[in-house]
Amino acid sequence: MSARRALGGLVAIALAGPVAAPAAAQMEGVLEEIRVTAQRREERLEDVPISVSTMDGDRLATILEGGEDIRALAGRVPGLNAESSNGRVAPRFYLRGLGNTDFDLAASQPVSIIMDEVVMENVILKSFPLFDIERVEVLRGPQGTLFGRNTPAGIIKFDTVKPSEELSGYFRATAGEVGTLNFEGALGGSLGGSDTVLGRLSVFSLNRDDWISNSFTGENDVMGENQDLAVRGQLLFQPSDEFSALVNVHWRDYEGTSEIFRANILTAGSNALNENFDRDVVAFNEGDNNPQTAEQTGVSLTLDWNMTDSVALTSITAYESAEDSSLGDIDGGNPGGPGFIPFQSVTRDGIPDLTQLTQEFRLSSQASDMLFWQAGFYYFDEDYKILTEPFFIPGTTRLHENTSWAVFGQFSYDMSASWNLTAGVRYTDDEKDLSDPSDNVGTPFDPVNVQDDEKIARRTAEDAGSSLARQPDLCIVINTRRDLHFFGYSALDNFLAAALGAGLGYDLSASVTLRTGRYIYKRTQNGLLHAPHFAAAAACRAGNWRCARFSTAAITAIACLRPAKFDIPFGTEHRLLERYL
Asked: Does residue 42 contact residue 366 with C-beta atoms inside 8 Å?
């Protein structure tokens, strides 16, 4: 490897305003108190009864200063992993091993990205650059009673630096080889000398030249480029102590190289790279040197109104739009090699148009020194087209539409200095449509509609009862100390399901689910089916029995209890809503 190709030798320059008081306290040997907003209110980290990891903006900036993207959080936060099959866009996240390995741009992810209180649902939206960040929080486990969009595996929550009355800002630049020049900066403060209107402007730019050559075409330095530019503007209007309005407008334009695939660089049984591996050279006969583009625009309006001394109303309205395209030679070579390549493959995948509209209303109250509660309504509407051009069939354009609404609530009560009771409930209605748009030039297909009111079990008697659709769930958390908490869930439809469990530490949990009216097949969000499911399902079918389910992170088992009203044909797929996970 030539010295020219080395990505080391970076030079960083950072300028910032005065040292903040907490940082100064740390310099004097005083331990800083960590505060988080994991439960939609500011609390000490040690008082939060859920598993939370946090990282401040300075530490995140240090991790990203070499030009890394959001995937750099993997390995820096316990239990968090991230990957991508599409370069710097479309990242996939896993918490405690729970995630979705499907790289399709329409695949739902059980780990949600929340940026400034707005969910970034599609994987393209999740790749927005990270800059001028105040705090990162990673919440493990389901968060449906806290956040409007349900999250079976957890949440990665980013809060940017908000406008303040004091004039403040920073500038940070990094330069290196291969044409690397990255910089970001922000400036904010009072506008017009008034404390009523505050603003902040943040800018991010990442630049790296092509450095990978294509030996098949004879072209030098034609891949590896990244040009990423993003801007965020925030305007805060606070006419009184009781009311404030925050407008957030952000934009991103990206052009670079998609994922680089390399054929036959590894040999089974060996950890060494084969001799045909050259970091600076590939031999692609297709793919036009793997180009990739993405553009994203978004705006949000957050209204906060302190109705009384103890009751506050929050409204968050947000709109996101995006488009992206990726083309790549995914066989990693050409008909002549390197090594044996069974077939040639080049694919294109992209979203020519995506829109997402969300609205959240949240009412919260510090009713007393011991009781805090909050309740909310959430609306989500998303539609986008996906253009897919695989190598083995004609390309296809699909139109995806998703509409969902939910109501949710939670309260927290301090029973004593050592005991705290937290309970929450959520009700969700979700509908997805897949259709053939008028501009589809590929293979036509029939429309598909998926709703959460579909019957989950097949009836064998006319008096079987009502459907299990739209059942709210109940979550109860009892915190006894920092490393031990108890929790429970219940689906409230004539008490058809109930669950109790306990968690020791932050990485071990157990639950038991009882079905008293019918058997319900329950699957994990990431689609992994454990062998005990099938054995138990067969046993329950044979005896027409009700079932109980016990699960941990690694083991899932179902035990039959007594006869039920339903016969579930073994081998038939049955679905339970994601909110129960």
From this structure: no
Total number of residues shown for the chain: 581
Q: Is 49 helix (H, G, I), strand (E, B) or coil?
A: coil
Quote the CA–CA distance of 228 and 114 in Å, as a whole number.
Answer: 21
Indicate the SS3 state at residue 151.
coil
Query: What number of other Cβ atoms are within 10 A of residue 206's Cβ?
Result: 24
The alpha carbon dihedral of 130, 134, 139, 145 has a sign of: negative
At 358, list the tokens: 């969300």
CA distance 250 to 267: 46
Report how far residue 56's alpha carbon sits from residue 173's, in angstroms, rounded to the nearest whole number: 19
Residues 133 and 513: their CA atoms lie apart, in Å, by: 40
Q: 79-87: long-range contacts at Cβ-Cβ below 8 A with a sequence spacing of 24 or more?
A: 79/53, 79/138, 79/140, 79/507, 80/53, 80/138, 80/156, 84/259, 85/259, 86/258, 86/259, 86/292, 86/326, 86/349, 87/256, 87/257, 87/258, 87/259, 87/292, 87/326
How far the first Cα of the chain sits from its last, in Å, is 48
| Burial classification of residue 329, based on how many CB atoms lie within 10 Å of its CB (0-12 exposed, 13-18 middle, 19 or more buried) | buried
Q: How far apart are CA 207 and CA 184, in angstroms?
A: 12
Instruction: Return the DSSP state at 68.
Output: -
Residue 458 backbone class (left: φ over 0; alpha: ψ -120 to 50; beta: rest) = beta
Which tokens hold the place of 22?
A: 């907490």
pLDDT of residue 443: 63
Determine contact, residues 172/192, Cβ cutoff 8 Å. Answer: no
- DSSP 3-state of 62: helix
> Is 351 within 8 Å of 384 (Cβ atoms)?
yes
Angle at 510 between CA 456 and CA 458, to 5 degrees: 10
**H or E segment and range at residue 198:** strand 197-208
**What's the token pair of residue 526?**
């990431």
Cα separation, 161 vs 158, in Å, equals 10
Blockwise average pLDDT, block size 10, the chain, 581 residues: 39 45 47 68 69 86 88 88 88 88 85 92 93 91 74 89 93 92 94 90 96 95 95 96 96 95 91 92 94 96 93 96 94 92 91 95 89 92 90 82 91 84 86 78 68 37 28 39 37 34 31 34 30 36 38 34 29 27 26
| Structure tokens, 104 | 């399709």
